[in-house]
């Protein structure tokens, strides 16, 4: 039994030492947005190894593949192809057991036009113009299969790392991600040896739907990370951490996605802490909590069951359940456990041992829980601590995490003070405030805007106030996508219909779901803007990846069929 989606199979043969035999097969059990089952009837009498050869072709609309015209690239000369298989889209590229419970190694030969470069989530072992060969010797789940073909160039950024991008962005990208080798070194201190041989980065076209995708040997990242000041490079620390949490030890199914993402955010925070100090690590965690609060109030407002750490996907596909919950609620749970058992000195040896025990395997929450008990029970003093953990509440409770660790709030306090100033006062009071002389760094500016958007009321929220805010902090002219994202949401909050062009310009500048989904959802809830938003969506949806177009249509409350 193999998973397929939109694939047309022309033949299946079994090869053995005795020769080739054609096999019977059929495709059935089609479920919308999930795919179909390819059943292959194997020979019953064989005492030999069998090689299956499936001849097939993919659909031009394969959900894992994005085909860009030259106009949709930076260079405007060559078309571009990229894939995004997570969670269940590998089945649209090849018949496979498309579940993270199964891992495989792979070899691939890729034929492509001579003037472009082909790369995969593997080591490139041979390359001649028009043909590239790859080998992935470490077993991976199907969602980590990846392919990209485009006018790409590379620049070294570390002993085992290069960055790939179109020529127009390569220097900027190499500068933005110059800390990559430091991130890898710190990740190895926390998690153990790096097993994947290479760690390259690829800066994607703007239609890439995620912040990053941890494809082994070749992380894909959104161009929205190119802020010019390395302030968003922690996404790279996150993808590096996945080399252990997710890629080496993998969730057995996507109901336990927190075992990939919560663990990865936890390690990402530790990398930040080792490089920038504990106040930065804690600020990073607090910022995550405000993103979680925003997500629960907006994206998941109508589906509280999806705010559980372990979700039930029996009636719901993993794309529909995707949110920041497994990331932030999951990492908060791990931090709670680390603090409970006495801090990093006690918890990190366990964490490394867990990764080492389950490497190359796929696990469920219970595997982690059992090992935690085995490990910490060796000291009888921990018995009382283990009894304190309310697993049921953490794993199956709805809403925000049941316990918020006592984080260092020093970097956050300034953000809260600025947010209070702008939310509670008129323009004259704001202009005279000594607070404005206090400089906030990039990550604090993002949090300040996030906190302002969280306020139930903002006094005199007029075009004039928003304009002053933009001038004061440089929000109107910033290149930083995280700042622009929150600033255009303030336009929506203030109902500034005359800023519609700016709002749509941002929504059309990238199709990263973290940014476009809340913008469309909020535009959809603003009666004056709703029809403009839907019209804009219909104009650009073909430039979006399937998963993005599908979820935005749901956010707008239009089924994609009618769109």
Automatic annotation (TrEMBL):
Q: Where does it localize?
A: Cell membrane; Cytoplasm
Q: Which UniProt keywords apply?
A: Cytoplasm, Glycoprotein, GPI-anchor, Hydrolase, Lipoprotein, Membrane, Metal-binding, Metalloprotease, Protease, Zinc
What does the entry give for GO biological process?
Answer: peptide catabolic process; proteolysis
Pfam families attached to this UniProt entry: Leuk-A4-hydro_C, Peptidase_M1, Peptidase_M1_N
Q: Cite the binding residues for a peptide.
A: 84-86, 209-214, 512-514
**Which positions does UniProt annotate for Zn(2+) binding?**
238, 242, 261
List GO terms (cellular component aspect): cytosol; plasma membrane; side of membrane
The GO terms this record gives for MF are: aminopeptidase activity; epoxide hydrolase activity; metallopeptidase activity; zinc ion binding
Highest taxon of the lineage: Eukaryota
Positions of the catalytic residues:
239, 327
What cofactor does this chain's UniProt record say it requires? Answer: Zn(2+)
Peptidase M1 leukotriene A4 hydrolase/aminopeptidase C-terminal domain mapped to chain residues: 410-556
Recorded hits in CDD domains, A to Z, give: M1_LTA4H
Q: Which residues form the signal peptide?
A: none
Do the record's keywords include Glycoprotein? Answer: yes
Can you say what this protein is called?
Peptidase M1 leukotriene A4 hydrolase/aminopeptidase C-terminal domain-containing protein
